[in-house]
Structure formats: structure tokens, C-alpha cells
């Protein structure tokens, strides 16, 4: 899938070993155990994302195909804008922080996630990347900077006419040449985690409302 207004400038955030010199598509799916599985179009496993939530934090780990930890994704509790930090390896130490994310607006109905590199040299309030779009429709784009002029990756659903019922949760991501696909997957994992929490919260509120109505 060709990306509009795309850039071939190298983007390496997690590691250059996760870049290739050509555009390619990855497939994102879930295993029966709930892990996010990322494969190429030939179904070779590239990466995995595993949930490791604690009593206080939502957490994910990004793994290689053979289950080695690449980065840890950790929600920052008691913060506005659904902030997350991403650390190298299985660390939570500040010196291993690679980047952080936050939702652009306190209340928003579509995905709009800003990304701030830990070693950024530009203004503190200016994001280095942004991912925008519709998570429910699996239609989000990753942009360089705080605008939508340069696209480096784009989510899209598989061809509906060829999709099996068992593949309803699958979607694809088109990655630009020389773009760190582990970084893109980490962003997708964060958005997925945020939306899971929001869906669970909404379901809980709805259940309480129904219970109150039935019990009144």
C-alpha cells in the first residue's frame, strides 16, 4: 500500500536492526492467549506484544520472535492525557527511557497520540511524532512531527472480501523504507492498551447504570 506524502528519510527510535531498505507490510493479529502477534505477509513472526499488567499499572512488553524483551511499555498512573513511557529492555529506570507518549487532548473521540523522544533537542512541548486516526476502524497514520505532512506508516484493514470470520481482529500496517517497525508496533500496542482500558471502563459504567435502573 503506497503512503501519501511519505518520506524515505531513516527513522530509527528503538533500533536500526528493525529497519529494512524497502517498503513492506506487516500483519497484526492476536493469539488465543491474547498476545499481539506481528508477522510479515508470509506469516513469519517478527515481533510479539505481551500484557503484563500490575495492580497499579498497565504494562506491555515488546518481544522478539524468540521471546527476548526489546522494550517495556508502561502507563504513567495518576496522569492526564493517558501518558505512557517506553524503556529499553525490561527496565523502568529513567536512564533507559527511549520515548514517552500522551494523548493530545484530555477528551478525544479519535486517536491522537503525541510522541516525545527522551533525547529530543527541540522544544519540550513539540512532539517528534504523532499517530492519528480511528482505532476502531483500524485506520491510523504515523506522522513525523506535529502535523500530517510526512507519513511513515499507516494502519489499514485487510481486504474485507477476502477476510475470514476468524480474522476479524487482523489488520495490516504499511511501513516506509528505513522506518523502525518495532517503534511503529510499540505505538500501536500503546493505542490498543489505552482503548482496552477505555472500553472496560465504559462497560463497567454501563453495567452500573443498568444495575441501578433494574434495582430501582
From TrEMBL:
This one is known as Uncharacterized protein
Sorted alphabetically, which InterPro entries does this protein's record hold?
LOR (IPR007612), LOR_sf (IPR038595), Tubby-like_C (IPR025659)
Gene3D superfamilies given in the database record:
LURP1-related
What SUPFAM superfamilies does this protein's entry cite? Tubby C-terminal domain-like (SSF54518)
Q: Which family does it belong to?
A: Belongs to the LOR family.
Superkingdom of origin? Eukaryota
Amino acid at each position: 500500500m503506497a503512503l501519501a506524502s511519505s518520506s524515505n528519510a531513516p527513522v530509527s527510535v528503538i533500533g536500526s536492526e528493525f529497519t529494512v531498505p524497502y517498503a513492506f507490510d506487516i500483519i497484526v493479529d492476536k493469539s488465543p492467549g491474547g498476545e499481539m502477534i506481528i508477522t510479515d505477509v508470509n506469516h513469519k513472526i517478527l515481533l510479539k506484544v505481551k500484557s503484563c499488567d500490575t495492580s497499579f499499572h498497565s504494562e506491555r512488553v515488546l518481544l522478539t520472535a524468540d521471546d527476548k524483551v526489546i522494550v517495556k511499555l508502561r502507563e504513567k498512573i495518576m496522569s492526564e492525557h493517558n501518558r505512557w513511557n517506553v524503556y529499553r529492555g525490561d527496565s523502568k529506570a529513567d536512564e533507559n527511557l527511549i520515548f514517552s507518549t500522551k494523548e493530545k487532548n484530555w477528551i478525544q473521540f479519535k486517536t491522537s497520540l503525541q510522541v516525545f523522544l527522551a533525547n529530543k533537542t527541540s522544544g519540550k512541548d513539540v512532539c517528534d511524532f504523532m499517530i492519528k486516526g480511528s482505532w476502531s476502524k483500524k485506520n491510523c497514520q504515523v506522522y513525523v512531527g506535529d502535523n500530517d505532512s510526512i507519513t511513515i506508516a499507516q494502519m489499514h484493514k485487510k481486504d474485507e472480501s477476502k477476510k475470514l470470520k476468524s480474522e476479524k481482529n487482523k489488520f495490516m500496517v504499511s511501513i516506509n523504507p528505513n522506518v523502525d517497525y518495532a517503534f511503529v508496533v510499540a505505538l500501536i500496542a500503546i493505542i490498543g492498551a489505552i482503548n482496552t482500558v477505555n472500553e472496560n471502563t465504559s462497560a463497567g459504567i454501563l453495567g452500573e447504570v443498568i444495575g441501578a435502573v433494574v434495582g430501582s
